[in-house]
Specification:
Chains A, B: Belongs to the acyl-CoA dehydrogenase family. The structure is a homodimer. Chain A has about 600 residues and is α+β, with helices and mostly antiparallel strands. In chain A, about 55% of the residues lie in helices and about 10% in strands. Chains A and B meet through α9, α10, α11, α12 and α13 of A and α9, α10, α11, α12 and α13 of B.
């Protein structure tokens, strides 16, 4: 059976030693009293919850899946899911980073980030039920009317109800401008919605007494395309003014998808038939309102793959130490055994370290991003708030696409460590690969993320935000450029940072002449940008670790960190050499191919 | 529902236009009368069989899986599998390339290769039932006694019985030296075998009246390790001297694995309890005898991924032309539609062309290898026979590992083209990813293949065989070095061929000092070697196509081939830049990591 140990030590390293989050957070009025002990204690309890409550349901949830009763349209998730959710609500976990005005605990986002990483390691399918709710909470919190907030937010905050995002329709996923679901205004100010949605995660279940669907739809007079989309809140059960549950609304599950993975989560086809809803935000501005939820969800998806990468790594490491097979090429290592543990083999180490380096680099980046979210919301200096928001917007497509692609590489590598035993279900490794695979697709495919990054976030403002992030790298280089012990990390990072400026300018020029050049280079570009960012965080982590070692700290954790940084720069970071080459080879080899693709 | 069209045109291109196989085959006495029409006609019929008989069972077979009756130990494969197998036998397909002395049709291996590619595209899980038999046929044909051949081969050739390979045990897969199954000699010259085998593909089923298990086991006095292993044939039902079926033997299915994919194939735990067998080959020389089967199987596994890559490509291409979503970045393409077909987007083309280039490069390499097998067996000149055998031995780990890794990349890319629809089962794309995943593991993991290539096949003879293959590349460069139209293909190929010599010598020196350097570089090295080989075949295919175009042939097939070659060299081949860099970064970053992997 698989195992999972919450990586609390590594989280604490990133939070307190590398990013020094409490210093940063104390500068934000709502978090002026935060201290490391509180954060650590919450995460320790959160880790226990993940290990004890949802992790034991991961394999059984995958095997059992969800069941739809076609007469009642009710969905039953796998055994134990409902009970675990009740414990989640009882423990107050839904409220962790929510606004105290609506019953939230008001903890910083960084805490929620680390908690959800562990929840994703334990059980991604289960965690999507409260995870989607949190996105609905954020969209309503940002764009709801006072009445909507008062009516709905306390229930989302407590976890008493869950939320969903209803965007996709059978004929449109990426291209929401084509959506057809209609919203007819009613005399009482409400709307009646009719249409078909698909791929709605956590779309129907019996874990809560109500579900709040956030639905994109068109008003009768709406302009065509993406400028004619409005956002509505459509509860499964209508909600009376006093907050009590009323009649069943005309929104129900028409079918469940049979998927490659995340079987424990109900991916629902949602049918709306004169479903009553109220509008969230302004008419025809639904996409903007939904983007609050989507940006949160994109960071959340990256976090899902971070969780899977970590748990895959832990299991592959344990297996590699335990499984004996063949002798080390450089001489017998375990003389008392008929063969050596496979961790003596260089390529087994490479697979393990790939997962470890991607998990730990991803953790640093993800925590950094949520710290920016905390600062964007509460920093007293407007410029800091603005810069924080800009940088997190730049990093969001990287977190989404780079971490999920890395999760694909890492879960597959960890599965490979198990040989044939990785392909059978009992070890749980192939499930991690299947579960991770959706993360590269939903909330905007990774190709869409790359276009968002290169086209919008970078070329869209002539690289201004990239330069802001580049200044952080520049500062690190200035600080460590003459430190010989840091040279193996700083030199490749500085070289890539240099190259990146030139590379970006080139692509800007080429894209100006032919926009397909941007589309042809974007995916490669995103991975280069991902390594630039990971390179920065790995250099910072190595810096912190080397300082501890220099100060005589005997904890082998720091040496391990330096070794992992060395592996990252030697074996993973050089991918950028090829990526820049293929990106520079341009669009012709892709677009002048009509005969090939006939 | 998925679709599949046998790629007969591309097969004919490789067979007749690039490799000119009939010219080569006619030089081999048993094939002196072969002609292109015969080959094409057999493949056309073979393609029909794949499309009409086994392809319709692919998704249902995945959904249904195999069922074990725990009281009788009998396994029932998915619905329709047994009937399809009867048609396979009736059509004479099992006998295609088998020895006419035992009822075979005696067609060249190249024909069997192309037939099996199509069968793998149609249904890998089904195709493994006869596929494993063919390996058993080859091992018995090479190492069986006359009595064994006479008794068993006609039934394997006709397909009346199937065969298996029983190697792996719970505690050993890669490291067969540790295996424990015992074979006790009996007074009558037979042996009684006792032990437990796992992961036995096609290990039990009701499709044939008997199953011939080829089992590795130890004699009582056998030396320890891999030098004490013998090979036995152990039929499910004992076979009387007249070939009729006798009593049930003590070999049965103790359980079925629940796997990520290939659900239609019964992956059996095989229990031997005083099972009666006869020895194949000499005592303690079982591994050598089994290697005949394993080498065939390794080429066969590469062929499985080739088939999956092709069918994934065809479906993704059709979907990309049909699915409309967003507008082209370079201006509206389908003015009559609310959005453009997604094939206008550069990255969608990149995903499609990746699969196409890997499929067509793989096809050329795989056919080339089986042509070498034909020559190794029958060429009148001993030196040609020897060289052919050496080169196919060199290329076998490349076919196995490079084609299966490419299949992983390609099936995942093609699934990604479908967006969310790729993740649900109905389109069949996620099944291709799951089915392909085993190919990177079984018959020796891809890491083992890379060690076989670099350690044994290349450094083991100081690069002598690599030089023989290098001569082919040299000849092509000499032939086309001044042809401007070929420069974009020849230049990168020539550059890599140059680098490769230096790179190999370096690794040889480093490995001499520290064998872990070989283990650290091997996986990267194999992918570089794979691209060297693919680069050679892509250049040859471009050469053939450019000549046709120059001669005024208006068939757009040739332009498509040149465009795909251009894509391959622009977008896939440059991966070698990073791979050589990471391979050269050495073993320290992997091995000096005990603190990291604590």
């Amino acid at each position: 059976m698989p195992q999972y140990n919450p990586p609390l030590r590594d989280m604490q390293f990133v939070l307190h030693e590398v990013l020094k989050v409490t210093d940063e957070l104390r500068g934000l009025p709502p978090h002026a009293d935060i201290d490391a002990d509180t954060i650590n204690a919450v995460l320790e309890e959160g880790g226990k919850f993940a290990v004890e409550v949802t992790f034991p349901l991961n394999i059984s949830g995958d095997e059992e899946g969800c069941t739809l009763d076609k007469t009642t349209h009710e969905v039953t998730p796998p055994k134990g899911f409902k009970q675990a959710y009740a414990q989640f609500v009882e423990g107050g976990w839904a409220a962790l980073s929510c606004d105290p005005e609506y019953g939230g605990q008001g903890l910083p986002f960084v805490v929620n980030q680390c908690f959800y990483e562990m929840m994703n390691s334990a059980n991604q399918a289960w965690t999507m039920y409260p995870g989607l709710s949190h996105g609905a909470y954020e969209a309503l919190h940002a764009h709801g009317t006072d009445a909507q907030k008062k009516l709905y937010l306390p229930k989302l905050v407590s976890g008493e109800w869950t939320g969903t995002m209803c965007l996709t329709e059978p004929h449109c996923g990426t291209d929401l401008g084509m959506l057809r679901t209609k919203a007819e205004p009613q005399a009482d100010g409400t709307f009646k919605l009719t249409g078909n949605k698909i791929f709605i995660s956590a779309g129907e279940h019996d874990m809560t007494s109500n579900i709040l669907h956030l639905v994109l739809a068109r008003l009768p007079d709406a302009p065509q395309g993406s400028k004619g989309i409005s956002l509505f809140i459509v509860p499964k059960f209508n909600v009376n003014e006093d907050g009590s549950i009323g009649s069943r609304n005309g929104i129900y599950c028409g079918g469940l998808e049979h998927k490659m993975g995340i079987h424990g989560n109900a991916t629902a086809q949602i049918v709306l038939e004169d479903a009553v809803g109220t509008m969230v935000g302004a008419p025809n501005k639904g996409l903007a309102a939904m983007f609050v939820m989507m940006n949160a969800a994109r960071l959340g998806v990256g976090n899902q793959s971070l969780g899977l990468t970590e748990v895959a790594y832990q299991n592959a490491l344990a297996y590699a130490k335990d499984r004996i097979q063949m002798r080390s090429l450089s001489g017998v290592k375990a003389k008392d055994k008929p063969a050596d543990p496979i961790i003596v083999h260089p390529d087994v180490r490479k697979m393990l370290l790939t997962a470890k380096a991607y998990a730990e680099g991803g953790r640093a980046l993800a925590i950094y991003c949520t710290l920016l979210l905390d600062k964007e919301l509460y920093h007293p200096d407007e410029k800091v708030r603005k810069d924080s928001g800009e940088i997190v917007a730049l990093l969001t497509p990287i977190v989404k696409a780079f971490l999920t692609d890395n999760g694909h590489i890492a879960t597959n590598a960890c599965m490979q460590v198990f040989g044939g035993h990785g392909y059978v279900k009992e070890w749980g490794m192939e499930q991690l690969v299947r579960d991770n695979r959706i993360n590269m697709i939903y909330e905007g495919t990774n190709t869409i993320q790359s276009l968002d990054l290169l086209g919008r976030k970078i070329l869209g403002n002539n690289g201004a935000t990239l330069k802001k992030f580049g200044k952080l790298i520049g500062a690190l280089i200035a600080e460590e450029g003459v430190n010989e012990k840091m040279a193996e990390f700083i030199n490749p990072l500085a070289y890539l940072a240099d190259q990146m400026t030139k590379f970006t300018t080139e692509l800007g020029f080429k894209g100006f002449q032919n926009p397909d050049e941007v589309g042809a280079a974007a995916v490669d570009y995103l991975r280069v940008a991902g390594h630039l960012v990971f390179g920065y965080f790995w250099a910072r982590m190595a810096q912190t670790a080397l300082r501890e070692i220099a100060a005589g700290n005997p904890d082998p954790f720091y040496l391990g960190k330096v070794q992992t940084a060395r592996f990252y720069f030697a074996k993973l970071f050089p991918e950028t050499a090829t990526l820049m080459r293929t990106a520079r080879s341009g669009s012709r080899a892709l677009m002048d191919t009509d005969a090939a693709l006939a």
